[in-house]
């Protein structure tokens, strides 16, 4: 799976741990670890909760993608 989220990066920037995030969300540390490793992804509701806890825009938790178009409509 490709890197879709930046949760681990934002946690490091804020000097917070996966355990802290897991405790705040009521999730297991294993689940948060999988998100940080981009093995699995949180659902959108959980991603919104993470953004609120970290006081960042939800878009800051996502890896940007570049749109390319090959055809005109």
From TrEMBL:
HTH cro/C1-type domain residues: 21-61
SUPFAM superfamilies noted in UniProt: lambda repressor-like DNA-binding domains
Entry superkingdom: Bacteria
InterPro entries noted in UniProt: Cro/C1-type_HTH, Lambda_DNA-bd_dom_sf
Alphabetized Pfam families for the sequence: HTH_26
GO molecular function: DNA binding
Name of the molecule in the record: HTH cro/C1-type domain-containing protein
Source organism (scientific name): Phocaeicola dorei DSM 17855
């Amino acid at each position: 799976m490709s890197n879709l989220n930046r949760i681990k990066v934002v946690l490091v920037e804020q000097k917070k741990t996966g355990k802290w995030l897991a405790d705040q969300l009521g999730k297991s540390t294993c689940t948060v670890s999988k998100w940080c490793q981009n093995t699995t992804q949180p659902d959108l509701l959980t991603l919104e909760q993470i953004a609120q806890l970290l006081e960042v825009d939800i878009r800051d938790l996502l890896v940007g993608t570049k749109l390319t178009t090959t055809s005109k409509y």
